[in-house]
Amino acid sequence: MGAYFDLMGFADGGWGVDMLRATAVTLAVALAGFGLGSLFGMLSAAASLSQIPSLRHLADGYTTVLRGVPDLLVIYLFYFGGSAVITQLGHLFGAQGFVSAPVFLTGAMAIGVVSGAYQAEVFRGAVLALSRGEIEAAKAYGMGAFLRFRRIILPQAARFAIPGLGNVWQLVLKESALISVVGLVELMRQAQIGAGSTRKPFTFFLTAGVLYLVISLVSGAAFRAAEARAMRGIRRAS
């Protein structure tokens, strides 16, 4: 046990600082991807619920393709596709050789696009769960579309969406480990580096698993607290 704490400690020769720094990178890329996914998801949900057939077909195609394609493939497409575009642009301005796309931005965008497909279904289901009578009453009262969305639809849809969004967040957190394949030194990549340097893979991967679990438990508690707060004053069926 002492050897473990020496290896994962913060003194000279310890990997504690590196592992915590990588954990922060994991959190950052996961939060960025989840935030972008929320934006994509809301836009896709709005399109799928619109009265315009072309928008509904576009939203359906987006969710079908992104939920059916492996996440790793999406990351590769974003990274190598983005790098190819940046390289060509660089050549126009005199740059030589291969120009790599920013790995953090690439990872966040890939995670955002994928998680957006799942969040779109969460948002769409939450809106469909609302009482149509309240929306019709708001229309009859003369509320405009934006005011209806801000005061009627959004607050109530959030109550139904929070549990589903919590599940999507857990998926995003695990997907962040895939970004290591394009060179981002997040928690999984740092564990691989430490394991290769010390020849103690079990120690590093076990530590990475514990750190992932801590993040998951804390964020899960935050989502449960948010759900409880959103459901205050709502009578639940017994």
TrEMBL record:
Q: Which residues are the signal sequence here? A: none
Keywords for the protein's UniProt record, in alphabetical order: Cell inner membrane, Cell membrane, Membrane, Transmembrane, Transmembrane helix, Transport
Matching InterPro entries, A to Z? AA_ABC_transptr_permease_3TM, ABC_transp_permease_HisMQ, MetI-like, MetI-like_sf
Which SUPFAM superfamilies does its entry note?
Answer: MetI-like
Q: Where in the cell is it found?
A: Cell inner membrane; Cell membrane
Gene3D superfamilies named among the record's database cross-references: MetI-like
Q: Which family does it belong to?
A: Belongs to the binding-protein-dependent transport system permease family. HisMQ subfamily.
Q: What is this protein called?
A: Octopine/nopaline transport system permease protein
**Native species of this protein?**
Shinella granuli
Output the lineage of the source organism.
Bacteria, Pseudomonadati, Pseudomonadota, Alphaproteobacteria, Hyphomicrobiales
